[in-house]
Amino acid sequence: LANNRKIRQGKLRLQKWYVPLSDPQKKKISREVIQMVLARKPKMCSFLEWRDLKIVYKRYASLYFCCAVEDQENELITLEIIHRYVELLDKYFGSVCELDIIFNFEKAYYILDEFILGGEAQETSKKIVLKAIEQADMLQEEAEAPRSVLEEIGLT
Amino acid sequence: MSGPFLPSVASAEDSGCFLVSLRLRMPAPIRLRELIRTIRTARTQAEEREMIQKECAAIRSSFREEDNTYRCRNVAKLLYMHMLGYPAHFGQLECLKLIASQKFTDKRIGYLGAMLLLDERQDVHLLMTNCIKNDLNHSTQYVQGLALCTLGCMGSSEMCRDLAGEVEKLLKTSNSYLRKKAALCAVHVIRKVPELMEMFLPATKNLLSEKNHGVLHTSVVLLTEMCERSPDMLTHFRKLVPQLVRILKNLIMSGYSPEHDVSGISDPFLQVRILRLLRILGKSDDDSSEAMNDILAQVATNTETSKNVGNAILYETVLTIMDIKSESGLRVLAINILGRFLLNNDKNIRYVALTSLLKTVQTDHNAVQRHRSTIVDCLKDLDVSIKRRAMELSFALVNGNNIRGMMKELLYFLDSCDPEFKADCASGVFLAAEKYAPSKRWHIDTIMRVLTTAGSYVRDDSVPNLIQLITNSVEMHAYTVQRLYKALLDDISQQPLVQVASWCIGEYGDLLVSGQCEEEEPIQVTEDEVLDVLEGLLVSNLSTPVTRGYSLTAIMKLSTRFSSVNRIKKVVSIYGSSIDVELQQRAVEYNALFKKYDHMRPALLERMPIMEKTATNGPTEIVQTNGETESSDSKHMPSIAQPANQANDLLDLLGGHDVGPVIQTALPTKPASAGGELLDLLGDLSLSGGPAPSPTPSVTISQPPFLLDGLSSQPLFNDTAAGIPPMTAYNKNGLKIEFTFERSNPNPNISVITIHASNTTEADMTDFVFQAAVPKTFQLQLLSPSSNVVPALNQGNITQVIRVLNPQKQQLRMRIKLTYTYKGAPVQDLAEVNNFPPQSWQ
């Protein structure tokens, strides 16, 4: 089970929780983890012990991707999971950068939810995940009726 | 209807022209991306908050209008603002409405919103159940997927109960897109409602025959969850081992598969999950373990190690090999992999290696030992977690053969490590030194090193432990006290060091000034210099109250070892008015020792005997003597041996010394007696108090239960057991002491002796104290005397009861010591009593 987070210098860009917690609890945990991860120096390893969990994190440009996993999880494969997710974002957005994730956060979630379900990977093929997103996006486009200019300014 | 945005509708008739009636509404809510752009322009937190509040107000009124068109957009914006940390609970119901909508876009945002804003603690979430149920049966698989995902992510137990049947159905579908999601959804259901696990069993039947990797992966996760939760399931699924082995083999042997390839390895995620499931199935089962032996060896030797992904698989393999009943060759292979990991440049790999080695060091100790030097090198790593593990592992690997080398490294580590490590490292060093010290000198040196380099991080319980250690290293006393003294000259800030040093100086100060050290060049130091140092501790504001207590007591003890008694007296009397209550109390008691009990002072302040540890490690149990009052003395007093052990050593010491340690009697309780004012100071004491008995090194009476059985503590007068004749134990200078005997009824091993002291001279013998010691096979207890004055001219007796335990029925011998004041002068005498009648001890 994992909580995923993307952090940029203290600003949360995306967070996914797989255990039920109240908003204040989530805020507190996020703050703590963010602080700890940001305090890490480059020479340190990618794993942090925190409470009874392990935080696995990796930095990509201006973003930190963090996963909180249970003690018995394989940390090295968790790094690979993180990497796979970043690859998916990269393929989808085409050389993904932080702004992509900021302005299209809901897409970032959709991709995450096609890759991971309930804290475990549901699909190990990059191609299949991206194909599913593509199809769902098309469904969305079909569903959205085109809006006329009049509609946009409030005149039906 | 009319209002600001609603022009009155002109009728066609009125104006003669054809007007399309326009109904102006609020302008469309701004788009998500535009909102994001706007908010990002905010330069201050306040500005951002203002924007957010404005937008939230707009969204709220839009929700109120029940506008279906823009609900999706509004909720999306709400989710963005929620991610920034703003409250969005008013959007929860809107999410539900979106989920119920027919439009895919709505559902997509709706489900996302549900996962972000709702959780099982809100009642609202139950309203989702019906929607999810419908969507699980939707004609579009992507809608079904949304529902499965949401349920599997945040479904409550109630929802899971309601919808488990739907999930089970989808677990059997041939649509791999849905099947893989259903498997993970089932995992969630089982976690929430474990009783439902059984119902998924049939559907697992042919899960592993799937070709689709997604389904395989999630199936293995599902099987793992079931096996972990139920021993029955575990037994049931053991039969899958061959199939799992085959799948794994195919993954390794098959050629390049672009869809699943990661750096030349085929589907590492699946490989790792299979290895984990094999671990669970093979644990404690010989057959299964054997069946997977080959594949494990294959994975271990063939996996490419240049990238993290290969090492991730190797890591999982090692964990599996160590957990199942693998043959020893395989285990060695696993440990060697870990050893190679330790040399890897990648710190993550080093980290997992150390973690794994820590887990296996107990069971595969010798194999891990081979990698000791690499492990020790990791002490110098920059990463805190790696250092910590390396330290723990290093301590686990210390043994009699490598202690010298290992300790060198560990002490070096102690010198330079972060403060967070120092306490644990110091404790570890002490423990290891205690177990494996090659020589006493090495041991003392090691302790010294720790105290001087990490002296302030040493745990509190180390101080009594170290004191005991030092006491018992008899031949090192001179060396130890010299080194500690020199350390004090350098630095008095580290309290544990200062405390141990004070204690030692108090105890062995005579060796210090007499320059008796053999181990190294003895230093020249005078009594005054030593006292300067100790007094310096008393006044320094670096010293804690506890340290001051140690220091004062040390000074006091030196009064019997040094000749500068007057100086010591002065110091002691000054502190009699100290603000620190603890210090004041001690000083007053010591003062009294000088004044009224001076004849007892040498006995009280004697060398400590060798102590037995009452507990193996950790804080030693302090046997409270008559001084429940002074809890701080539990720090000051190292573990006090039971009287039995005292007696053990007494005879040995009795033989060689002039003044042997003796068991002190309790003094009379009569208020008129000398102890009166001290009793007031010391408060309630369970036994009759003596002058400052607690701080003294000699053991006062602690009463082992067995000696008390049945008898009261009243002195027994003139009791004679049938047939045991009395005897004269001592007769000198007009003082005669007679012994009379009785057998204790419940316990025939106990002899009860009553002494009768009488005085034939013309003057009283006052301040009379009788003390006795017996050989080590005996135990002795002295009860309170009837008084401390032996009246002149046989006008009265002092009687006192001695109880002797003689389990081995050995010949009773006793050494007695008498002190009293006669015509103003102190008198002291020692005597052997060997003429006990056989009936008294047989």
Automatic annotation (TrEMBL), chain A:
Pfam families: Clat_adaptor_s. Residues 8-139 form the AP complex mu/sigma subunit domain. It is a peripheral membrane protein. The keyword Protease does not apply. One of its GO terms (cellular component) is AP-1 adaptor complex. GO terms for biological process: intracellular protein transport. This is AP complex subunit sigma. It comes from Electrophorus electricus. The gene is AP1S2.
From TrEMBL, chain B:
Belongs to the adaptor complexes large subunit family. Its main location: membrane. The keyword Membrane applies. GO terms for cellular component: AP-1 adaptor complex. The keyword Transport applies. Keywords: Cytoplasmic vesicle, Golgi apparatus, Membrane, Protein transport, Transport. SMART domains: Alpha_adaptinC2. InterPro entries: Adaptor_Complx_Large_Subunit, AP1_complex_gsu, ARM-like, ARM-type_fold, Clathrin/coatomer_adapt-like_N, Clathrin_a/b/g-adaptin_app_Ig, Clathrin_app_Ig-like_sf, GAE_dom. It is a peripheral membrane protein. This is AP-1 complex subunit gamma. Residues 722-837 form the GAE domain. PANTHER family: ADAPTIN, ALPHA/GAMMA/EPSILON (PTHR22780). GO terms for biological process: intracellular protein transport; vesicle-mediated transport. SUPFAM superfamilies: ARM repeat, Clathrin adaptor appendage domain. It holds the Pfam family Alpha_adaptinC2. It is found in: Cytoplasmic vesicle membrane; Endomembrane system; Golgi apparatus.
